[in-house]
Each structure stands twice: as structure tokens, then as C-alpha cells.
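This protein record is not my work; I was only asked to verify it. The record follows directly below this note.
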Amino acid sequence: MSNLLTRRLALLDDDAHRPLLGQGLRGIERETLRIDKQGRLARTPHPEQLGSALTHPQITTDYAEALLEFITPAEHDIALTLHKLDAIHRFAYSRLGDEMIWSESMPCELPPDDEIEIAWYGKSNIGMLKHVYRRGLALRYGKAMQCIAGIHYNYSLPDKLWQLLQVNEGILEERRRPLRDFQSEAYIATIRNFRRHSWLLMYLFGASPTLSKSFLRGRAHNLEALSDDTLYLPFATSLRMSDLGYQNDAQSGLRPHENSLESYVTSLMDAVNRPYAPYATIGTKKDGEWIQLSTNVLQIENEYYSTIRPKRVIRTGERPVQALCNRGVQYIEVRCLDIDPFEPIGISLETGRFLDAFLLYCALEESPSISPLEGQVHARNFARTVKEGRRPGLTLTRGEQEVPLREWALELIECIRPLARLLDDQHNEGAVHEASLAIQKAKIEDPDKTPSARVLEEVRELGSSAKFGLRQSELHAAYFRESPLMPAEEAMFNEMASISLAEQTVIEQSDNVEFDDFVAAYNSSTLCGNT
């Protein structure tokens, strides 16, 4: 534990300051495929009863028309966030008919690419922009990769906590910087510590050691055959986060610098504006139809696939990087979590409690800059863990030494423990965060208790990843359908759906420029500027 962390813990343990820890916000985004009763990808449009995928605040689609995305409101306590996520699931199931939602991160058996429908958002310019962007993703990465699902964990600490740290550490007087800049740098520092330690999350929560043969579609791989339709690696934790998942040649060399917000933004903007020859050969249109928004390395900044992102809530007409430039970092989005197939909503409360303690440790611990060589080491540790995390005796690189994953993981649990206790001190439900640490410690001491080991055991028993995914999906469907929403909750969701459909209609009727001009204006918009 660094001197900086020790001082910050003492400061926040004061009775006057401890309540600040309960004022941060937590939000969840859960992606999930709609499937039919046989466990195949649903071929139906996004159900209109759920509302508009373009404008609904809590129920939308991601890449494919069948890839639902549930978005919770941000709450101070992860328990309430998960309650809201549960309610979204219950409403969705009340409108899905015979369909279900897939229980795993890696897709069900997929049809050929040309039979996977890209998400449709209506005829408005902004709706078409979202659709054409996804056409570009299909060209660049293939449709199967875009059907992978995950849990995104949005996390923030209150502005008053950052203000307290800034004043207490004398930074306000020494550098005369606005709070916005201090807060942005603190979140970027949090991201650096996340890079150092995120391999631990993949060991503890990775839940995709197997996948359907249909996912790879003839791509080269080093996976082993578990059965006629299932591939796996014996010690893998998360094939979703391996090089079999989110990757392509254009992004392979893209490593945005996270030693400052400015360098991060500069790296992304270079990628958004830098032509990439293979994409230029394809062009932006085919037979007069838009097929991608640009021929640059990234069509838009959100195309950068990362395990974590600095974020800011955007305003109407604003791009994500514009929001960061103009108003600084507001929260971070953790994107590496697999769907937990043993949990109906895809994530457990204990996982959320641990994440809160882990991310608070990343936020308060000292976080030196990361050199390019150190960045490669962190990436290699992550890659080892997702493919071999449960291998007996597996080592990771720490500094100039190779250390056993188990030894380092247990050390990290003890480093996080004071943060868990601090969170419990301000929480009125007892030692819930420290109890979560005990659950995670047990997984480190016995790899068979990890989700990835449990999934692999179940798949072996059933003989197929598809059978396991369908069985879990059926169990979860029964769980939600047996306990419908209260009438007031259902009325609220019905109202949200109706409002969203009306909002989409207004947007479509108010467009007054041609789509080509709309795309040109979007691509040429000033990405960073002063407000």
C-alpha cells in the first residue's frame, strides 16, 4: 500500500467524509441475444412493444436486430441498480412471446453472415447513421464477432470526493487547476491502475471457456474440440476477451495513451481521421448505398474496442470525444465482464460489491504513468489470463519478475480489503463488501470455483456449449415469467415504450437535410473545442 493510498484512506475514514463513498453512481448495460425455443438466433424484428430502439432510455439494440441491450438508470447502490436491471428483464420477457434471451457472452449457433440482420433504427438521419455504422462494422469485423455480448459496468465517485482530495493534497493551490482537470486526471489514473490489475477480473469472473464452432466460420485458431459443435481451451477463463473476440488488423496497432486525457483523445482522433488503405479500397458506398461512414481506421470513436473507457454523458448532437474535451471525464465504463450464465440478469450482487471495492482501490492507489513497454506487459498478462488463467503454476509478469498468478491475486485481495472495509463502514447492511472478497479469495485458492471452471464442467457433462446455453436460458426465462412485474412497474415501462415510439416519429418527421449531407457534417464536426 502506497503512502498516498494510506493518506487517502485515513481522510475518507473520517466521520465527516465517509458518507461521500455512498454518493457515487453505478449503472449496468447488459447485452443479450434474442433466441427462439430451439436456441437459434431470433429472426424477428425488435419487438415494437418494447419501444423504439432509437430513443428508449433503457431498452435498445446493439449490433444485430436480435442483440438486445438493457441499460439501467445510475444508482448510488449497486443493489438498487441490479433491482432495476431485473425489472427491465421482467418487462422484456412479458413482451417476447415464445422467444428467450441467451444466457452467455459467446453467441448461440449463428446462421450465415448474410442472414444476420443488422439493427434498424428507422428512417431518420440519426437512425440511418447508427445503421450504416453497423454496416461498416460488418465489413470490418464480420457479423459473428458483433454478436458477442457482455456486461458494461459504469462507475463514478462524487465530485465532492475529488474536490476533497484536491484540496487536501494541496493541488488547488500549487497548480491553480480547475476541479474538472483534477477529476479527469484522477479517472485516467484509475484506468491505468485498471490496466495493471484487470487480469484479476478475468480470472474471477471470466465465464466463456467454450464457444460454438459456428462462431469461427473457418478462421484459424488453436482451440481444442470438446465435441462435434463445441471448441474450448482447457484453462481458459474468457475466450470472449481473447484474440478470438474483439479484434482486427486495423485496430491491432491502436493503443491510445492513457497517461493524460489529452493524449488519449489525441490518439483516438488520429484513428478517426487517418485513412486505412483496405477500407479505402472498399469505399463508403456500393451501388449508391452507404456501407460504412468513412474509410478511416475508426468510423467513429466508439469503434475502438477497449476493456475500459473514460466517459461523459453526451448532449444532443454532441460526439463522445467532444463531451470529454469540453467537460472532462465524468465516469468510467468497465467493458471486460462476461455474462454470468448462472445469474438470470447476467451479474450477481457479490460481483458488483467486489467491483466497487476493486475500482475504489484503482481510484485511490498511486498510479504512475505507463510506458509503452509496460503497456505491452499489462496486455500480455491479460492475454495469458483469458486463455490460461486456471493453468496450474501460471505466472504473470510483475516488474522484472515472473510471479505466480495465485500469489499475486491473493496479495491484491489483501490490498483491496481496507477499501472493502471502508465501504462497509458507510454501508448499513453489514460487511457485504468484505464478504464478497471472501468469495473471490475462495476462487483464487480453488480454481474449480471460478465461473469458467463451472461452465466447462457443465458443458462437458452436457456434451455441448449450445445445450448448456439453452438450458440456462430456459431456466432464466422460467424465473422471470413466474414472477411478473407489479402493475405500477409494468405501466411505467409501457409509458416509456409509448413515449419512445412517439419520439422516434418526431425525429423522423423533423429531418430537413439529405443523409449524405448529414454524414458529411457529422464526419467534419469539430471533435474538440472550447465551450
The mean pLDDT is 94. The CA atoms of residues 31 and 250 lie 25 Å apart. The chain has 20 helices and 14 strands.
